[in-house]
Amino acid sequence: MKTKGAILRNPGEKWQIEEFELGDPVAGEVQVKLVSSGLCHSDHHLRTGDSPAPMPVLGGHEGAGVVTKVGPGVTNLKEGDHVVTAFIPACGVCDPCSRGDQNFCDEGARLLTGLSIADDTHRAHTTDGQGLTQMCLLGTFAPYITVNQASLVKIEEDIPLQAAALLGCGVATGWGSAVEIGGTHAGDIVVVVGVGGVGINSVQGAAAAGARIVAAVDPVPFKRQMAEKMGATHTFESMEEALPVLGEISWGKMANTTILTVGEIDGSMIQPALSLTGKGGQVIVTGMGNFSSMDAQMNLFELTLLQKRVQGAIFGGASPRTQVPTLLNEYRAGKLNLSDLVTNTYRLDQINEAYDDMLEGNNIRGMIVYGDDDY
Q1: CA separation for the pair 1, 261 (Å, rounded)
Q2: Can you give the residue ranges of the Enoyl reductase (ER) domain (predicted)?
Q3: Helix (H) or strand (E) holding 343
Q4: What's the pTM?
Q5: How far apart are CA 353 and CA 298, in angstroms?
Q6: What residues contact 134, with CB distance under 8 A and at least 6 apart?
Q7: Helix (H, G, I), strand (E, B) or coil at 98
């Protein structure tokens, strides 16, 4: 079928809205009519060149919609099902999936290749026949996607699809960084550095887990205000500003966990985060940096003698097929706020304006909402 999407031809260029050809599902695949797509900073890393991917790229990896076609061999989804995209596929049979570590699924090695899980070919092509790399095997900056069933999680129909899109990346990654891999317990002290579409959910998760202090760090006043609404007990403009105050209010204990959820991680951020972290504590690195960056500064004396940890996290350290239903239950229980996460909505042809707003700090999360004229 012919449809349209936001395509990046080369790093450094703007997203272009182009018509392209989307193939029908083959074995193990389904086609989905999307309602919305979140605008994540990870897609901007394609534009800056920080994330390597074969060009051209069809962007987007955070979406929700309704299954419209089902390929051969698909048994867990049918036409009409409501689904959320998961930016990490979960095949269910590889070694990591068998251990319950779906966020390590072996099929994740394909995320930036553009080659489908089913047959190592492209499911999307430009009008002149060139293969399109679907970001994270998804490409949600288009009203229709054809993807492997491993990249979708079925959800109940009582959940608003527009808001549900955020579960596939920002909400699950942020919440999990605090609750799953972060292991926040009642009475803990948690610092979240960077209050965007991921960090705001680390704030929510830490608060829901019973943290005594949830300190949010962000230079943008609007984001600090939103963090307070979502459960932050204290807010700061910078890690340097937070350091003496956190020492005072924690009686010198400092944080059990400091979570780095800034849009672009730099190696110079690790040591300030470690300084905010107490003995035996951990720094969770959730934000993405340049794929070629090898430089991280930290005091190794402090790292050893205070037994601190620096821990990476993908999908919040959780498994998509368990985390998404868990978060839906938190939403139903009133512990997860989805309605206030989206600051502004955009049409597909406003995508460059939307990313300008993200970079200027105007959004917690921007979202593309598809209209009748997009289908």
Answers
A1: 38
A2: 12-370
A3: strand 342-346
A4: 0.94
A5: 37
A6: 57, 58, 114, 123, 124, 145, 147
A7: helix
Question: What does the pLDDT look like over 38-86, one tens digit per residue?
Answer: 999 999 999 998 988 999 999 999 999 999 999 999 989 999 999 999 9
Q: Which residue has tokens 């900073």?
A: 41
Contacting residues for 267 by C-beta, under 8 A, at least 6 apart: 289, 293, 295, 296, 297
Neighbour count for residue 94 (Cβ, 10 Å): 18
Q: Is 208 exposed, middle or buried (0-12, 13-18, 19+ CB in 10 A)?
A: buried
Q: What percent of the chain has pLDDT over 70?
A: 100
- H helices of the chain, in order, are 41-48, 95-98, 161-164, 170-179, 199-208, 221-229, 239-249, 270-275, 300-305, 320-332, 351-359
Amino acid letter for position 206: A
pLDDT at 71: 97
Q: What is the pLDDT of residue 221?
A: 96
DSSP state at residue 140? -
Parts of the chain with a pLDDT under 70: none
Tell me how far apart the terminal alpha carbons of the chain are, to the nearest angstrom. 11
Instruction: Write the burial class of residue 125 (CB in 10 Å: 0-12 exposed, 13-18 middle, 19+ buried).
Output: middle
DSSP state of 149: G
| DSSP type of residue 132 | P
**Residue 373 vs residues 4, 20, 33, 232, 349: alpha-carbon distances, Å:** 11, 16, 13, 40, 12
3-state secondary structure of 126: strand
